[in-house]
Amino acid sequence: MPLGLGRRKKAAPLVENEEAAGGRGGTAGGDGGGGAGHGAAAAAAGTDVTGTEHPGLHAPPAALRPRLVFHTQLAHGSPTGRIEGFSNVRELYGKIAEAFRIPAGEVMFCTLNTHKVDMEKLLGGQIGLEDFIFAHTKGQRKEVEVLKSEEALGLTITDNGAGYAFIKRIKEGSVIDRVPLIGVGDMIEAINGRSLVGARHYDVARALKELPRGRTFALQLTEPRKAFDMISQRTAGGRSGGTAVGSGRGTLRLRAHGPATVEEQPSAFEERAIAKVDDLLESYMGIRDTELAATMVELGRDARDPDALAQALDSQLGDFAFPDEFVFDVWGAIGDAKAGRC
Q1: pLDDT tens column, 36-81
Q2: Where are the alpha helices (DSSP H) in the chain?
Q3: CA-CA distance, 168 to 155, in Å (whole number)?
Q4: Helical pair 324-338 and 268-285, crossing angle rounded to 10 deg
Q5: Helix, coil or strand: residue 150
Q6: What would the pLDDT profile of 208-247 be if each residue is shown by its tens digit?
């Protein structure tokens, strides 16, 4: 539906309209965002894991696929395992669980090329073909009471694409920053006893936003299991803004629907556009999700005007109910990236 002709009114930011000030958020690096769960747009023609040009979504028989083998370890320490034969994040977690003989539900999230709880190196929808995968598993459970003294709690939420939402960043000086027991990487299991396992990050952000100001609420959290050298580590860090691009020369892109595809690394334009759109997602919705940002850039790169972009977003990502102002900003961000202005 064209902009201004009955589209949805602007929704208030769900958690915060976060400025550029850094907070607790891991160390610097490339962003991984919220996982493969937002690859909702139909897969573009590309090269599938057989190396064959392939316009559709039907994967070839497993026996005909080449072996794409990745090395992995548990982040708190383990022997090195080898995994292969996955097409999405849930399957990846299942393969990791098989390799280390643990329940798949124990895997909270993965980072690329670091065992640290580094929110800038989260595994999202793309894995470099030479990347090393570190799996972070469930550690200590805890319950914390928080007084919502301000509208904005100071949280940025992401998720792992497989049912767990967790804290990606804590704004310095915010309500949550003043609660030392809450840390970056903590999975939000429940709010006031209401389970959020299986909820997407935007659902969790909305639930936090809707909590009444001036009231105390309970957060049930699970922190990632830490290795010995991480026990005293604080999660201080700067502003994020990288993209979910691995260090390998090519990348395996995981999709919610259809086969994983082997692709070239994003162009400089795509990297700039994805980073900017991811920043806009955080500003408007209190979430970061580079796979969602990448999908939006795909939908917008050939859109002829903001109305065409709005129609594409409504068609493929209508559940988000993006406000008009956000769509205009996304259109501008993609245009700036094309022109090399950001």
Answers
A1: 333 333 333 333 333 333 344 444 455 444 468 899 999 999 999 9
A2: 89-100, 201-209, 268-285, 290-300, 306-317, 324-338
A3: 8
A4: 160
A5: coil
A6: 989 999 999 999 999 999 875 554 443 433 333 333 434 4
DSSP 48: B
Please give the mean pLDDT across all residues of the chain.
76
The two tokens of residue 53 are 């040009």
- C-beta separation of 30 from 240 below 8 A: no
Q: At what angle do helices 290-300 and 324-338 cross, to 10 degrees?
A: 80
- Specify the 3-state DSSP secondary structure of 219: strand
**Is this prediction's pTM over 0.85?**
no
CA–CA distance, 270 with 301 (Å, rounded to integer): 9
Beta bridge partners of 122: 111
User: What is the chain's Cα-based Rg?
Assistant: 19
How far is Cα 269 from Cα 248, in angstroms, rounded to an integer? 19
How many Å apart are CA 70 and CA 160, to the nearest integer?
A: 19
